Amino acid sequence: MRTPVIAGNWKMNKTPAEAVELARAVLAEIQPFTTVERVLCPPFVALAGLAPVLAGSGVGLGAQNLHWEKSGAFTGEISAPMLAGLCQYVIIGHSERRQFFGETDASVNKKVQAALAHGLTPIVCVGENLAENEAGQTGAVVTRQVRGAYAGLAAEAALKTIIAYEPVWAIGTGKAATPEQANAVMARFIRDLLQELYSAEVAGALRLQYGGSVTAANAAALMAQPDIDGALVGGASLKAADFAAIVKAAAG
Ligand code: 13P
User: Fold this and answer.
1) What does each of the 252 residues of the chain score in pLDDT, given as a tens digit?
2) Residue 170 alpha carbon to ligand 1 centre in Å
3) Number of domains in the chain
4) Which residues line ligand 1 (CB under 6 A)?
5) Whose CA is nearest to atom 2 of ligand 1?
6) Is residue 190 part of a domain?
7) Helix 105-117 crosses helix 138-149 at what angle (to 10 degrees)?
8) What is the pTM of this model?
């Protein structure tokens, strides 16, 4: 039985003070749902403020990116050891980073390895864009991205990760994948590939989140699918009541 995991990706929203305010409001609503693993991912500058708010609450804290080197001349970057004392999760390879900031399968792989080396749980994002989807390349793209992210990773390490399947055409568009569509990608492409790369045990144990226009209204249907173990939520994670409704849907 896989524990559902719901993460809120706040993206580039909220000042540190606003983030604390939102975290308090979200916490008040989601704390009772202890059967769901719950994670808030604010911008870097809000991590230190949120850590004491979430400490001991059962709700985890995550960053939205990291650099693979431990330290050095990388102006503007944040490393895994810097995050390790502050948070427990880190989103890696989000499509917005791939699209706007030059993230590649190779850099995603280095970041996953760095996160794991410092005890952080990577939430590894994969997903095809609209053109790729319309060209029937969903399987090829997702397979390439998963292969790239997990290159050189042993089964034991892979088991510590979470994969978020986020079709780019569904992100922020209000046009979520249908539950059946999303589940088919998880089952046919992601779990089958994990079985090929590792084993049936690893393929069956890894948690797969869906991301892309998840709302309070569609969460239950998505979560009812056998291969969907949670959600990576953008817009709806910025509203305490909406995010709580999604967590509740995952609790069943
Ligand atoms: P939306 O939920 O706003 O579509 O964003 C999804 C996402 O990118 C989460 O990482």
Assistant:
1) 899 999 999 999 999 999 999 999 999 999 999 999 999 999 999 999 999 999 999 999 999 999 999 999 999 999 999 999 999 999 999 999 999 999 999 999 999 999 999 999 999 999 999 999 999 999 999 999 999 999 999 999 999 999 999 999 999 999 999 999 999 999 999 999 999 999 999 999 999 999 999 999 999 999 999 999 999 999 999 999 999 999 999 998
2) 8
3) 1
4) 9, 94, 166, 171-172, 211-214, 232-236
5) 234
6) yes
7) 40
8) 0.98
Domain holding 60, by residue range, is: 5-67+77-236
Question: Which two structure tokens, joined as six digits, stand for 42?
Answer: 């604010």
In a domain, 197, yes or no: yes
Q: Is residue 250 part of a domain?
A: no
Query: Is the CB of residue 67 less than 8 Å from the CB of residue 74?
Result: yes
CA of 51 to the centre of ligand 1 (A): 23
Whose C-alpha lies nearest to ligand 1, atom 7? 234
139 Cα: distance to centroid of ligand 1 (angstroms)? 21
Per the domain annotation, does 86 fall within a domain?
yes
CATH of the domain at 83: 3.20.20.70
Q: Which token pair is 8?
A: 């809120």
In the three-class reduction of DSSP (H, G, I as helix; E, B as strand; rest coil), residue 191 is classed as helix
- Determine the length of the chain: 252
